[in-house]
Each structure stands twice: as C-alpha cells, then as structure tokens.
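Treating backbone geometry as a discrete language has practical consequences that deserve illustration. No coordinates are needed to read the tokens, only the vocabulary itself. For completeness, the protein is quoted in full, as a sequence line and a line of structure tokens:
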Amino acid sequence: MINPAAAQPAQAPDPANVQREAQLRQAAEAFEAVFLRQVIGSMRQARLAEDVFGSSATDQFRDMADSRLADDMADRGSFGIAELLLQQFGRAGGGAR
C-alpha cells in the first residue's frame, strides 16, 4: 500500500525561514570571529620576551593579521562555535537544525 504522505512532493522551503537561517548563520560566524580575535589577542599579550624590533606599526599590522586569521578560522568553522550557536538557536526558535 502506498503511503499518501510519502507520495506528496516535498514543499519548497519558506523564503522567510531561509533568510532567517542565513542571518543566524552570519551572526553566529561573526560571534565566533569576535571570540577568536579575543583569544588570539590574549595569547599575544602573554609575551615571554621583549620584542627587539617591535614598534607600534608592527603591533598594528600584527593586530590586523590576527583579525584576518580569526575571520578565516570562523569562515572555515575550525572551532565549531558557530554551529553550536546555530543548534542552540534552532532549539530556542523551534526550528530543526
């Protein structure tokens, strides 16, 4: 016997839900990037020796490189913080993720 529920074509996803999920993903990845910037910054502050060739310009460029590194790590999902946030938001909002 054919199950009538299984024979129905899959419904197209609701555009509002797709947009909401995209916005949540973007916010979660941005949070992960900010968190990673803080972690990297804290590691940089724990200097073990004096930087002989260091200057404020070097520090500024190092900070920019660290920020870019944090953004790249968040984009790759290396730590999974964004995915955990999406799972939490999905449960709180009633969505399945």
User: Anything to note?
Assistant: The CA atoms of residues 11 and 73 lie 35 Å apart. Residues 15-45 form the longest helix (31 residues).
